[in-house]
């Protein structure tokens, strides 16, 4: 559906995106994660043609988004800040989106406003930060497009609304067979809903994870030795200590995990236990921290 082929973007002589390629299939939920300044927002802005590419191409349903811009009616991008809309009313904004997106469903839009207790007769400046975030997610869903791109969508939402909104997005994906691309620093939320996660570092896609196969690639182990952590294990390139409190160490093994696990066991640890691997563990292992 969406294909990104070797795209590059330079801003102020700085290479912000460097040779990025990936694709998003119909019906999938893809997460985009990376440290601050990695280039996530720039990438999202390129995907919808707000920023021009310096190299590479982006196609949606085999149509180039730059040379065949009508294809952008099938994609909606919700940025992480909505200040530009403050002086407009709910009615004005929904009418604007209805004019842009041919399948915009106004009846559904109003039913979602009601479901989430948002007023339909106010200006956006009267909404709290969380209400605005919720409003734009509802707007995106009501546009009935094929791909929704969300930048930090759950910032400012309280725990209950957040859970309901994520549930709503999941329902839309399974019932309408749409796709989602979500950039977020909330790794615990992303790991619950995504099929694939793209990890960005310094303007590049550092790695791509299929969330169902993470356990094959990594192992997270908690281990306690009688004395210090053996120095010969510390020098292993596929072993990273991610945490330690006293003599209790948490390590992540990447690749050849079973072989390295045997090396740990050979050092006769007092305790050795495998823990579930989270997206945050992957992030720390790959980005370093
Ligand atoms: N308009 C701009 N002018 C100058 N530099 C820019 C501009 N937009 C982005 N950059 C630079 O590009 C890099 C990537 O920024 P971007 O906002 O895409 O990162 P990000 O991964 O979304 O970060 P964060 O997680 O903090 O939101 C940063 O170094 C940033 O300073």
From TrEMBL:
It comes from the Bacteria. Residues 2-227 form the ABC transporter domain. SMART domains: AAA. GO terms for molecular function: ATP binding; ATP hydrolysis activity. Keywords: ATP-binding, Nucleotide-binding. SUPFAM superfamilies: P-loop containing nucleoside triphosphate hydrolases. PANTHER family: ABC TRANSPORTER ATP-BINDING PROTEIN YTRB, SKFA PEPTIDE EXPORT ATP-BINDING PROTEIN SKFE. This is ABC transporter ATP-binding protein. It comes from Lottiidibacillus patelloidae.
């Amino acid at each position: 559906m969406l294909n990104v082929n070797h795209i590059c973007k330079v801003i102020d002589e700085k290479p912000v995106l460097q040779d990025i390629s990936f694709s998003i299939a119909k019906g999938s939920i893809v997460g985009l994660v990376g440290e601050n300044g990695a280039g996530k927002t720039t990438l999202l802005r390129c995907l919808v043609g707000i920023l021009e590419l310096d190299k590479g191409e982006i196609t949606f349903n085999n149509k180039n988004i730059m040379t065949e811009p009508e294809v952008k009616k099938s994609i909606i991008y919700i940025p992480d800040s909505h200040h530009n809309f403050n002086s407009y009313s709910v009615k004005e904004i929904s009418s604007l989106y209805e004019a842009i997106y041919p399948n915009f469903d106004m009846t559904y839009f109003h039913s979602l406003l009601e479901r989430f207790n948002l007023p339909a007769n106010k200006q956006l400046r009267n909404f709290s930060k969380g209400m605005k975030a919720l409003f734009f997610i509802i707007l995106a869903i009501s546009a009935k497009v094929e791909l929704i791109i969300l930048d930090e969508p759950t910032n400012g939402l309280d725990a209950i609304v957040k859970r309901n909104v994520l549930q709503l997005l999941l329902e839309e994906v399974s019932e309408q067979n749409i796709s989602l691309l979500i950039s977020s620093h909330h790794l615990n939320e992303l790991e619950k809903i995504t099929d694939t996660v793209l990890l960005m570092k310094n303007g590049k896609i550092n790695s791509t994870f299929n969330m169902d196969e993470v356990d094959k690639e990594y192992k997270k182990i908690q281990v306690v030795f009688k004395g210090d952590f053996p120095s010969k294990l510390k020098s292993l390139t596929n072993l990273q200590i991610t945490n330690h409190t006293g003599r209790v160490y948490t390590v992540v093994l990447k690749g050849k995990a079973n072989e390295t696990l045997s090396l740990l066991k050979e050092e006769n640890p007092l305790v050795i236990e495998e823990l579930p691997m989270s997206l945050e563990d992957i992030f720390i292992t790959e980005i370093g921290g």
